[in-house]
């Protein structure tokens, strides 16, 4: 039987593809893998522990934090703090970015931005959730103190991005700009193995993912696009199928494998949309483009947007190129 290579072997083997390869990025990816295992274990037995339910405080987004949001945030921060590959981190669950100023971090070249637990509304009801991460080289010089500019870089500066999906199986999917690969966790062995090599969006998609409960609040362009996908047209396989889990990672993963579009547009209740540019949209946009798809805010390429705030939100149109271009057409024609 063909032996699946482990994530560790793959990271080392592909280190050469990375211009600055000295092993720090490989070590950083391994740290994320380690923290992911710890969070995965907690999620798998969440119902048997005190980890379900709300933590009793609000995060900077004004959302009630789930205990698992806090736990996952702590696990990733402490794992990365103890391993020295990064000089700072920003998270959905932290108001401001965190500088690691211990000596072992001073010369570290990378920073991480992350959504420790994505799909929080699904935690207590056992529906798939995830972790999203985005990695940049710092702009400030090693030895200097980390500053806001290090975190407010456009998405096209990312050196790596990915997610861990805690679903029927746990899969870590990432890119360093050389394609997208997925690794399934084997709990019996305790390792991630290459299971989804060189993931590409299929040529055509037939799935649309949007919270139609917000339909009345959507811009005209989105309303017309949704009506269009629901019309009958055998030639291009409409009506499309509606699939929406409430977890970005789960909807994105399905749509990347099967072909589809995920939309979180602006709305009268969320004038800038809901998803956060730095640790939700940028990493998914990097993966999307590496997998042959397209990702915009309805008009502009997500990866070209210049961030101004850590937790800023942007409208998000992501998926098969032709599907996103069709949605953009409706947005342009109905401005
Ligand atoms: O419930 P809504 O408004 O449709 O929003 C669902 C979206 O919000 C999110 O839950 C936001 O992420 P967090 O759970 O990390 O806050 C996405 O995963 C999901 O796609
Ligand atoms: Mg999220
Ligand atoms: Mg989250």
UniProtKB/TrEMBL annotation:
Domain Fructose-1-6-bisphosphatase class 1 C-terminal: 202-331
Pfam families in the record: FBPase, FBPase_C
UniProt binding sites for Mg(2+) 2: 115, 118, 280
Keywords linked to the UniProt accession: Carbohydrate metabolism, Cytoplasm, Hydrolase, Magnesium, Metal-binding
Positions of substrate binding: 118-121, 211, 244, 262-264, 274
Protein name: Fructose-1,6-bisphosphatase class 1
The species this protein was found in: Autumnicola lenta
Quaternary structure, from the entry: Homotetramer.
């Amino acid at each position: 039987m063909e032996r699946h290579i482990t994530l560790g072997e793959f990271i080392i083997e592909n280190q050469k593809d990375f211009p600055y390869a000295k092993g720090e990025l490989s070590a950083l990816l391994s740290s994320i893998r380690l923290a992911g295992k710890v969070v995965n274990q907690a999620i798998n037995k969440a119902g048997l522990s005190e980890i379900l339910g709300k933590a009793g405080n609000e995060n900077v987004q004004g959302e009630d934090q789930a205990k698992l949001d806090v736990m996952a945030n702590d696990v990733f921060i402490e794992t990365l703090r103890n391993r020295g590959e990064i000089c700072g981190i920003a998270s959905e669950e932290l108001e401001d970015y965190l500088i690691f100023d211990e000596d072992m971090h001073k010369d570290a070249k990378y920073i991480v931005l992350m959504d420790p637990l994505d799909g929080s509304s699904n935690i207590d009801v056992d529906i798939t959730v995830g972790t999203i991460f985005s990695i940049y080289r710092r702009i400030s010089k090693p030895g200097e103190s980390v500053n806001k500019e290090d975190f407010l870089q456009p998405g096209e500066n990312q050196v790596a991005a990915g997610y861990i999906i805690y679903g029927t199986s746990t899969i870590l999917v990432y890119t360093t700009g050389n394609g997208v690969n997925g690794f399934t966790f084997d709990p019996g062995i305790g390792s991630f193995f290459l299971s989804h090599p060189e993931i590409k969006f299929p040529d055509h998609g037939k799935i649309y993912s949007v919270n139609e409960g917000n339909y009345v609040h959507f811009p005209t362009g989105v309303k017309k696009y949704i009506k269009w996908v629901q019309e009958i047209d055998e030639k291009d396989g409409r009506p499309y199928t509606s699939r929406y889990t409430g977890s970005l990672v789960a909807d994105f993963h399905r749509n990347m494998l099967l072909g589809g579009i995920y939309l979180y547009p602006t709305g009268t209740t969320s004038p800038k949309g809901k998803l956060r540019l730095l640790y939700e949209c940028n990493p998914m946009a990097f993966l999307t483009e590496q997998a042959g798809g397209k990702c915009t805010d309805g008009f502009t390429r997500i990866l070209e947007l210049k961030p101004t705030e850590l937790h800023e939100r942007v409208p998000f149109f992501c998926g098969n190129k032709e599907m996103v271009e069709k949605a953009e057409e409706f947005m342009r024609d109905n401005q």
